[in-house]
Structures are given as C-alpha cells and as structure tokens.
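hey team, just a heads up i'm posting the complex here instead of the shared drive bc the drive is being weird again. everything in one block, sequence lines first with there labels, then the predicted structure for the whole assembly after. its four chains so it's a bit long, scroll down
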Amino acid sequence: MTAQPFVLQILNALAALLLLLSFAMLAQRRVVTLVNLLALQGAVLCAATLLLAWRTGEAHLYFSAALTLCLKVAFLPWLLHRLIRRLGVYWDTDTLLDTTGTMLVGLLVVVFAFGLAQPISALASTATRSAVGIAVAVILLAFLTMITRRKAMSQVVGFLSMENGLFFGAMSATYGMPMIVELGVALDVLVAMLVLGVFFFQIREQFDSLDLEHLQSLKEDR
Amino acid sequence: MIANLGSPLSAALALLCAWVVIGLAGLLRPMSLVFAGRTLFPLGAACGLALALAALLGIAAPTAHLTLPIGLPDLPMHVRCDALSCVFLCILGATSAGVSLFGAGYFRSGQGAPPGLLCLQYHLFLASMGFVLLADDAYGFMVAWETMALSSYFLVTTQHRIEEIRRAGFLYLLMAHLGAIAILLCFGVLQGGSWQFSFDAMRSAQLSPPRAGVALLLALVGFGAKAGLVPLHVWLPEAHPAAPSPVSALMSGVMLKVAVYGMLRVAFDLLGGPLWWWGLLPVSLGLFTALYGIVFAAAQTDMKRLLAYSSVKNIGILFTGIGLAIVFHGVGRPQLAALALVAVLYHSVNHAFMKSLLFLGTGVVLHSTGERNLGRLGGLIHRMPWVAWLTLVGTLAIAGLPPLNGFVSEWLLLQAFLFAFEVPHTFVNMLLPLGAGLVALTGALSGYVMVKFFGVVFLGKPREAAAAPAHDAGSLERGGLLWLASGCVILGLLPAQIVPVLARVAEQLHVGRLLPNGAPWWMLVPLQGRQASYAPLVFSCAVVAVVLLTIWVVRLLYHQRIRRVAPWDCGFGRLDARMQDTAEGFGQPIRHLFEPFFAMQRQLPSPFDPAPRYRVVIGDRIWNAAYAPLGALVQRIADAFAALQQGRIASYLLYGFITLIVLLALVL
Amino acid sequence: MMTIEWFTQFLAVAAALAAAPLFLGWVNQCRAWLQNRRAPSVLLVYRGIRKLFHKDAAVAEPASRLFIFTPYIVFGTMVVAAAIIPSVSTRLPFGTAADAIALVGLFATARVFMSLAAMDIGTAFGSMGARREMMVGFLAEPALLMVIFVASLISMTTALPVISERLATQALTLSPSLAFTGVAFTMVLLAENARIPIDNPATHLELTMIHEAMLLEYSARHLALLEWAAALKLLNYACIGFALFLPWGAAMGEAGPPALLTAVAFLALKLLVAGVALALIETLSAKLRVFRAPQFLATAYLFASLGLLVHLLLGA
Amino acid sequence: MEFLALLGTPLAGALALAWFGARRRAPEANAALSLATLAAAVALTVRVFGAGNLTFFHEQFFIDPFNVFLVTLTALVGFTTSMFSRPYMRVELDHGRISAGRLRLYHSMYQLFIATMLLALTTNNLGLMWVAMEAATLSTVLLVTLYRTPASLEAGWKYFILCGVGIAQALFGTILLYIAAEKVLGAEGVSALLWTHLNAVKAQLEPRVLSLAFVFLLVGYGTKVGLAPLHNWLPDAHAEGPTPISAVLSGLLLNVAIYAVVRCKILVEGSLHSPLPAQMLMGFGMLSVVLASFLLWRQRDIKRLFAYSSIEHMGIIAFAFGMGGAIANFAALLHMTVHSLTKSAIFFAAGHAAQKSGTQIMERIRGLVTVSPTVGWGLMLGSLAILGMPPFGVFASEFLILTTAMREQPWATPILLIALGVAFAAIFGRVQSMVFGETTVKRLPHTPALLPVFLHLALVLMLGLFIPPYLAEWYRAAARMIGGG
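-- predicted structure starts here --
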C-alpha cells in the first residue's frame, strides 16, 4: 500500500475528526456545548472543503466552503446561541437511553455505515472516496442523536449535523453537487433554520418550554 | 353502434336510460311531491311495464350483444341480453311497474329525504338493477352492482333521523360491500388466466376443478351476502323494515332476485360445467337458510321484520333449487336439472310478485296507523278492505297454497327433489330426499307464519287505539296492489304457459331441456313420462263452481236469515281486544319447538309480582357467534396498532431509523 | 268412454258427499261400542247437519266477509278433493288436475282459511284454536308429504291414480317401507282430522280443544257446512290411505259399470274396516296434551323418513 | 411562455400576497392567481397535446406524459382549493381563529406552495426536485401551525422534523445517484442529475450504489408520501392545519412525493434488474394500507380520519407502482388522479362541516343533510367515492389494481381486500352518523363554496364511467415508461 499524499492524509484526519465530533454530540447533554460542537463540525467541514478545493482546483468547492463557513460556522450557531439565551434552554435533562448504551449503538451504526459505504467508495472516482463511510456514519449518528434527545433544540442540532454529513458525503464522493443544487440546498437549510426560529418562539409562547414532553398529545394510543 | 332500436336489448337499454332521466328530472323540482308523485313515478311505472314486455319478447329472441363506448379504456362496457337476463328483466319491469304505481300515491311529504331526491334514488336503483342484468363484463357488472347497493342504501336511510334506521343502513351497505368484494374476487378467479374481464372471456376460460370450486364458493359468498343467505343474512331483517315500504318491496322482491341472477349467471353460464357435488353446498346452505328464516319469521313481532325473514326463507328455497340444478347438471340428468332451474326461475318471479305485494300492503298499514308492531294492530280488514283482501292474496300465495303462484314453484321444486335419489352416490341420494322433507316443513311453516301475519294485522279487533281510525289505500296505491295481486293469481293459474318460457333459459344455458309433451294447455306436466300433473285452472274452477253451487243450493233450500250478535266465546262474555293472541303468543309454539335456534332472553314474572311483566328478547345466535367477535377482533387489532403511535417524536424517528437500517441491510 | 268417466266422477263425488257423514257416524258408533256405551244412530251426523241448516245464522258482530265465506270455501275444497282422489276409479277426469302434493296443498288451503276465520272474531279461543291448528298442520304436512314421497318413489310419480294402479298391479310383496309409511300416514290422519290422541272431537273442554275451538263462533248453515266438510276430510284422508296402501278393488283403467259397482262395494268394505280400526285406535290411546303433539307428529315424520330410507336401501 | 407563466404566476403571487395578503379582496386575488396558473397549465397541456414532450431552459425542465396530467391536476386542485378557502378563511377570520396578519402569511405561502409543487413536478433535475420538495415542506410548515394552538404547534413540529429528516435521506440518495451517474455521464456539465439523461443510460448505472440510493430516496420521499411506518407526521399535520391546507397536502403534496419516488424507481429498476425496489414499494404499500385501515377505527377527529384514509390510498398507489406493468401503472396513475380530486373534495366538505358544528370531533357533528344538504351530500358522496364505491373513479382504479394483484401477487389480494373492508366499515360508519340523523349544526355567515366539491366529484364520476381517450393515452404512455412488472 502506497502512502497517500499529505493532503489526503490531512483530509482523512479531518474526516476522523468529524466522526469524533458526531460521537461527542451523541454523548453531550449540555445544549450550549452541543451547538459549539456543531459549529466545530461545520468548521472542520469547511476546512476539509477548502483543502479539497485547493487540491482539485474545483472552483465551486471554494464557493461551497464559503457557504459552509457563513452558514454553518457563523450564522446558524449564532442563531442557535441567541435562541438558547432568549429561551433559556441550557440542559437536555436526560437522554432516553443512557450514554453508554447510546455509544454502543453508535458504534454498531458506524460499523454498519462503513460496510454500507464500501460499494459507494468503490464506485466513486474521487481521491477522498474512502471518507464516504465517515459521511454515512455522521448521518446515521446524527439520526441517532435526534432519536435520543428530548429537547427540541438538541433535535435541531442533530438535524443540522445530519446536513453536515450529507454535505461531506457529497463532497468526498463527487466533489460536490452541481452548483444550482448546492445553492438550492443551502437556501433550504437557511430557510429551515429561520422557520425553526419562528417555531421555537411559537412553541415557547404556548408551552413555556422547549421540552418535547409537551409535544406528545397527538397520538393514537389513548 | 346501436344495432337495431327494435331489438329487446336496445329497447331495454333505452328504458333503463329513461329511468335514469326520470330520476334526474326529479331534481328539477326536488321539493315538489306532486311533480314526483303524479308525473314521474307513473312514468317510471310505464317504463317498467314496457321493460317487462320487451324482456318477454327477448326471452324468445336470440342472444344480442352490444359494446358501449363507456367504461375502462381496455374494457368498454359490454351488454348482453339472453333468456336468463330477460327473465329477470321481466321480473324487474313487471314488479317495478306495480311498485312505482303504488309509490306514486305512497310517498308523503314530511321528514326524511325530499321527494325529488327520493325519485332520483329510486329510479337509479331500478336502472342499476337493470344494468346488472344486462352487464356482460366484470367492470360493468360491478359498477351496476354497487350502484344498486348504494342507491338502495340511500333509500333505506330515507328516514335517517331514526338511529335504528341508520344502523340498519350501515350494516346493509357494509355487508353489500363485503359481498361485492367476494364477487370481485370471484371474477378474478373466473377469468382463468386470460386476464380478460369480459364475460365472454370467462365463458371460454377453462378452469381447473379446484379453481372453479373456489369461484363458485366466492360467488356463493358474494351473491349470498346480497341475497341474505344464512349466515350472511344479518343485514336483511334490519334493512328491509327500515326502508319505506315500496323500497322494501323492491329490495325484497327484485334486488334479492338480482343476486339470484348473479348466482345463476356464474354457476351455469360463466363457470361452464360445475362438478356435481359442489351443488351440495348451496343445497345444504339453502335448506338451512330456509328453515332458519321461517323459524325466525314466526318469532317476529314487527310485521316488516317478519316479511324480511320470510324473504330469507325464500332465498333459502331458491338456493336449494340452484344447488339441486347443479347436482343434476353435474351427474348428467339434464331434464331434471332443467326442472330444478325452472323451479328456481319460477319461484323468483313468484316471490317478486308476492313479497312486493305484502310489503306494499304493510306500507299502507304503516301509513294509516303508524304502527309496525303486530302487537298493536288488528281488525284492519274492516277499515281497509282493499288492502286486506289484496294482501290476503299475497299471504296465501306466499304460504304456498294452491291455486296461487307460490305453490307452483314449490311443487316444481319438490318434483325435482323427488328424483334426487337418481344421483348415483350413496349418502347423497339418501340425504337429498330428506331435504325434500325440509322443504315441505318450511313450506308448511310459512303457512303458519302467514296466518299469523294476516290474522294479527287484519283480523280480530284492533289491539290499540291507533289501529282503529285507519283508512284504506288511495287509488294509485290500489292500482299497484291490484297489479301485483293479479300477477300472483295469473302466475298461479297458468303455469303450463309460463314453464315453457322459463325452460328456454335452461335450454339456452345448455343445462337441459324440458321435452314437450302432449299435455293439454291447461295442464302442467313438467317431466315427460312421469305423469305428475297439475292443473290449477281446473280445480280452482271446480272449487268456485262448487262454492257457487253450494251457495245457490243453500239459498234455494233454506232461509237467509243472519243475526248479528255479540261473540259467544264459550259464553265468557267479558271479551276485550287484549285477549286475542298476540304476535308473541302466536309464535310461542315455534319458539318452543325450535328453541336452539334462538338466543332468547326471558324475563318471567314471579307468582307474587304485583305488576307482572313478561318480556322476551329474541337474539340471533349467528350474530352473537360470528359478527360480534369479528367486530371485537378488528377493534383489538386497531388497538394494537395504535400502541405504536404514542405521540413521541423520538419513537417516530426511531421507526424511520430502523426502517432505513433494515432496508439498507436488505439491499447490501 | 268420456261419458262413463264423467259419470264415474259424478258418482265418486256424490258417493263421497253422501258417505262422509255416514263414515263419521260409523266411527262414532264403533267407538261407543268399544267403550261400552250405547251407540248413537249412524245417521246422527246427518240429522245434526240437517238441523243446523234450518237454524237462523248468528254471526258475531266483528266478523268480516272472510268469516262468512270460509265455510263455503272449505266445503268446496273438500268436495273437489273428493273428486280428485281415486276412491272408486283411477280414471277420474279430475284425477289429473292435482297430484298428491297438490292435494296436500288443497287441504292446507282449507286449513288456512279455517284458521283465518277463527281469528276473525278476535276471541281468545278462536285465535288459540287457529294457532294450535296451524301448529298441528305445519307438523303434519311434511310428514304427509314424506309418506307420499315414499309411495311416489315406488311408483315414480306423484299422481295418485298412477300410484294406485302401479301398486295394485305389481306383485304382492311384503314392503317394509310401505309398512313404515302406513303407520306414519295413520298418525297424520289422526292428527289432521282432530282425532284422539291429538284432539278430541267429542269435547268442548276449552283448554284442550283445537278443531272445535275454531268453530266456536259458527252457527247454523255455516256450522253445518263445516261439519260436513270435516266429515268429508276424514273420508278423503281414508281414501288417500286406500289409494296409497290398499288400492285393490278400485276400478283400474278403463272400467265399465260392473267394475265400478265392485269398486263401490270394495270401498264400502274398506271404510267399514277402517272405521273399526280408527275407533279401536282412538279407544286404546289417551289424549295427549297439546304440547306433546309435536312429538307425536315428529314420530310420524320419523316413520315416513325411515320408510324412505328403507325403500332406498332395500328397493322395496 | 406558458411554462414561464405556470411557474411565474404563483411565485409572483406569493410575493405580491406577502404584501397585500391581508387586504379585504386578498382571497379573491388568491383565487384569481390560481385561476391564472390553471390557465397556464391548460395552455401548456394543449401545447403538449399537439407537440409531444417538451423541455425548457437547457433541459432543466420537461413535460412528459407522466407529469403533464399531474401539472394540470395540481393547478386545478390549487384553483378549486383557493375557491374553497375564500369563504372558509373568512369564516375563520370572523370566528377569530386567525388574525389578518396570518391570513397574509396564509395567502402568500399558499401560492408559494403551489409554485414549489409545480417546480417539483416539472423539473428535470433531480437535485432541483429535492430542493422543491424541501421548499414545499417549509412553505406549509407555518401553515400547519397557523392557528398557534398547542396541538397545531406539535403537529407542525413533527411535520417539520420528520419530513426534514426524511428529506435529508432523500438528499443523500440523490447524492448517491449523482455519484453513480457521474461515472457514466461525466461530472462536467450538469447533465448527471437530469432525469432524461439518466433515464437514457440507466442500464449502465452501477446497481449496488443505485440500490442504496433507492433505499435512501424511498425512505426520504416515502416519509413525505406518508408510507407506514414513516407516516406519523401526516395525520397530525392534516388534522391541525387549516382545511384548505389539509386538502392540498393530501390531494397534491402526497402525489408529488410519490411522483418523485416513481421517477427514482424508474432509474433504479432500469439499472438493477432485480425485483427489490418493486418489492420494497409493495411492502410499504401493503403495510400502509393495513396499518391505516385498522387505525381508522380509532379516529375521532374528522380530518384525522381522512388523513389516515390518505395513507391508505398512498399505500394502494405504492403497491400498484410496486407491481408495475402496464395495467398496474395505469391504475396507479388513475388512482393518483381520482384520489387527489376526491380527497380534496372531502376535505372541502369536511371543513365546512367542522365549521358549521364548531368542532372537528366527529361525535359532535350530526345531521349535516338536514341543515345544509349540499355539504352533507358532498361529504357522503365523497366518502363513498373514496371508499371505492362505483360508479366513482376510485373504483375503476381499485378494480384494475385488485385484478392485477390477483395475477401478480395473489398472496396480497386477500390482505388488501380485508383492509379495504375494514376501512370501509370504519369510515362509512362515522360519515353516516355525521351526515344523517338529528342535527347539531348551525348556519354560517358566509355561504360555503361547494362548487369545488361537486366539480371534483363530477370529474371523479366521469372517470369511473368514461376516461377521455387522450388522458388514457397519457396514462398508457406513462405506464409504459414506468415499466416494471
């Protein structure tokens, strides 16, 4: 096995960092830290994108990196922090599954994701194709995060983390989607977050809390 | 496209469309009773009459086809008119002529659906029944079939403010729908691998015996549910009383026959040659249904429920006949098969006339007294002689008494049963003749039931004040009743003219032929060389002659004095109306004899009770044993599913996650 | 030939009309003898009928026309039935008008009219009688039909004249099925004609009566007709029995006057014997309570069914 | 030109109504804009009718037999719903359930929603389709919470999160598709996500990746379709939002989502040559039908009831597409059409019924026909139609689906039929007691718009008895294109 170029080694390290951050988010219960982790994940993503852009010379990857920087590193964490301060949600009281259990499930999910990514990596022609597995793992771990949280805010963070995973997947496997799509996606994420902001205030106005416990009245099991 | 306007098929189509148009015309002035009653319903009756005539001509005419430019793109609606269709179209036309005429005078304004809407639903109901009879492909058949169910449902729930009626309507449509599902499945089996859903394709399909058996079973379930075959009969005694009387008359008189038509169409036309022993299922179910129906009829206290159960009994007889025809057909006794089939057809015609007549009669009673409960009626023969005497004709006919029509078809069926020992299989050839005994028993029981019905409603003294100021039917209503009653008489007196016409159906379906025999025109000899004969015209003339002669002789020889006195009653004297037998009392021997049939709840007073009350509630064991647990089962499954949906978003996400993982694992 | 047939027909009906009360009287007389009573005259029934015809008819106020017409209809039906049953000859013109099943139907018609008329006045006894009569009827009718079935299975037809002819012409065999059905038929006959053990024609004890309860409100000529019709019914049943089980002696095929005379003689003889037998049965058995009647008739039905099965099994 | 009008009108409308949406005549403006959209759609249809398939803007948009009738249908139902919402929203305003400001939001978002759906339908670019689908969610999420009641917020939140997560999966699926396509079509140029191009080369796409992609796409868009067990947002969102929104969600959005699924299925099946995608669709369909029909028994809320019915019908459609083949696809397309028309008609009627009786709880809605026969009959006939009663068109499609199922998947037929029977009993029993009986209903200040109800029902009735030849032709062409079976 020949040694990979240094850039790729860095890229792989960044990918591993992404995975680690996902795990950290899965374990973290403080909402503020969770948002910070998200921002960090965005930053790592941004760095990876930049690096890749530099290596491949794809112009639109620079653009993507800029988009990521603005949106995921700066704007969204800022927005979320602001919301946290305004709404006073700092703790996600407790997760539905204890941390160790969650971690174990997470580990299994990672194994599964890596297995899943095999055929994709085999097909992809990019230098970073081996990182696709990481992207899948990030997506699934984010999913898991959302499942195990009780606060609306943490779920949103999980949701955004999933978006990060998607982005990373697209980037590592194909050097990003066509521009028009990427713009559209970014726009959607932005709008989604704005809508969320509105939402949070509405929810809080009604329930005095962002605890999902209150959002369980519509059900069949009465 | 329209081949020949004069042909029975196009005439029938045109008349059915005319019904639809008449119905739609009702919406022009939806609130006008006069417009609907005096103009549209008589028009509908005229159409019915014309349809009956066209169909009568059509029985002798060759089979006609037509493809209509509507329906599914790959399956345009086919219509076809053969002798079988024509016989049932004839039933539809003739019966509806009487019922529509009656209906013209019957419907009153008041609560419930506005007259115009009623007119639409009524005529749609008629037209859809006609289309069922003409349809020659599965899609067209199903469309017409369900339209029939739907329009009749709306008619049943005309008085929708009454909770009971709504429940009856719901049960009715539900059962109809479940039946329709079975019919659809039946067609799915019948196409036999060609995946063509025209009846022509089904006719030419070669089915393996197991598949054909499944098809027959499904048909039995589907058409049985509509016809009221036990244990699928539960809707019938609920829905028929709930509907306005002309509608009950049509449902019982015609719609049940349409179900019988479907069964015949599948069994003898589409299915080709069913195996003989499949016929045993309809026979046994039919016999059980007949007994069950009539026994329950005897126990009823509501006059329309009583008639509804009597319909169940007649459906049982019809299915017995169908089964018998299948058996004979299968074992290669074409003449006997034809005889059984003719008996079925004859009974269908008869039952249409007599049951409509009776339902219409109860309609007048209901209108003028507001009572359906037998326990509160009585003595109406004095107040409404027209209705009483015409209903008496129907009563005697349905009790299976000669010389009226009900007897003829039962006679034919018994004749067919008599030769069941020719079936070359032990057990079967012993059991089938015993079945004839059951048919006889149900026939005799219906005599019992009908005496109860007529006696309690029309004879004796009014049991409650409400029955006292009753008035007779109006002229249009009388016309309708008279038409149906004369049908009963004519069908009873001229069987020798009618049987050959019906036998054409058996011949065209290749079931068998009734060979012509040298009997004179007034005598019915169904089977050549068996010498059983029946000449109702002769002996009824004789009876009339003897009666007249007796009256004359008595007048001649003795004086004519009649004194009107108080009833003697063994000198008891203090007679009042409440000492007559009630409906419960009259039914008591049957309840006693057939106790295992009923799920009875009795409240008996103790000997020292100061205000004794006797109450008996009669339930249907089949309902308790099959339907109630089924409902509970569905509810339990629903509860189990509901437990999945607890409202927590996390669990919803988890479902998504698991789904994703499982599917991914699946493709990996 | 036709004239002879029509003459025979007339003769049969006239004989039946005349003989019916006589037969009833004979049965009553036998019964009295068997019970060590002084027997009334055989002609007592005639006298009763004659007396009733002369009386003023008293009709209850609530009665409708149905009530008044019923006696005529019942009487007419019985007369026509007598014309159909091959009592003296198997070649009666009316013999083909109705087969055995239709005959049962005719009897049922008469019964239904009777019951309806009984309910017409609205008395407690009338409706009670109607109910009981119909109950006996619905049980007896299938049993009777089963009897007829067996006979017709043997001769492949339900036409009574043909059954008689075939039974009479076939070699005399010991037929267990006919024996069974014979018993069944007798039981049905007892039940249908309001004899002991189902009903007692000689009593008006209110709570046990069936047939008489229906006649309570009739008087004068109407009652006379009904009594006569009842007698005719008994005779008709007896004749059906003869046609099914003892066809010998009746004129078979195209018969001239001598054969007819013999037939009449044979019929008289058979009736004499039957009367004694009937009286004997009635004397030896006790009246059953009303709710026992179904069991009695179910037994009849069972016998007839057994006869059927035995016939199918043994072919005899 | 027509095409530009088709997309531009609602977009411009959304902007305009964002300013003027609270004015007195705004509902009429909303209807007028929808009418204009409909006109554009009809004009486009007529053009396609003459000219065949069309593409626009460098093949970024296209019209083929599969989407042409959906475009018209969307525009039509969009228009009729706007007609319905005119009196409906006014009554809500009068009752004080919403403020004028929210009416502005409503009108604007309504137009935006129509625009996104038309975009999703007409775009050739799978990425753009994703964007449009997400935008459709976002534009309706605030409409679901329009009343700001606790329940509506909860429903909105679930809608947002579940559909958001779902659609994220779809994005990943799209990415995977792109990876596979890029290999064949090359990364340069944007053709690698254009459906027409992909369709042309689908046989060369790498099957394993495509099957993974399909799973993500199916789970993603399937969430939006409301396939069980991903359906949980659907009843909540339908029940708690304003009725016009329930009508378009059920009648149009679900259609668009299943349209997306089928588009993807065509590609994947072309590459895969295995029955797996079809089986998945069938499995989801079956599960949805069974689950929904049993859950119908527990419903108390009228809109929730019909939301579950939508799940059931989406299940039927998914099952039919899963079976594939000319007849089943034809039937599924027909079913999409008739379900959309019928279900929106039902929601119109149900909306008025709920307004009249002041509650959505079915036990408290009684005797509609006595007070307002048209609403009552609309609800009754609509329910019967949706339950598959002939002569309505739903029966036609169900007939075809069931008969095909008998041939292709005999095991499934009894299950489907039982589920249909159970659903019949559940829905009909409830509808009957709402429509008939003694009444509790009162009159409303604004006359209800029932033209839409009866227009839809008339169309459905027509489709049951007679399918216009050109429509049948489109269905056939689309069915051929979808293939499978």
